[in-house]
Amino acid sequence: MKEAERLDEMLQPVHYSMFVESNPSPVKYGAKLMNLCDDEVRLPLVKITDNTKAIVKKALESAKLI
Length: 66
Fold this sequence. Notes:
The protein is mostly helical. The chain has three helices and no strands. Helix 1 (about 1-15) runs antiparallel to helix 3 (about 50-60) and helix 2 (about 25-35) crosses helix 3 (about 50-60). It is elongated, with a radius of gyration of 13 Å.
């Protein structure tokens, strides 16, 4: 149980960062940072703001995913 709580605490910033903007673009950007795909999106979706990019990057770094 302690390991699950530790992982949950470590991943909470990642969970939060994926929903800073109300579209899947934060997830696409995170996947790009992890070298899983690019962050291109089709209309009506738009790319995330620079502020959101910083939030996503910081969260992934804090979870040691990038």
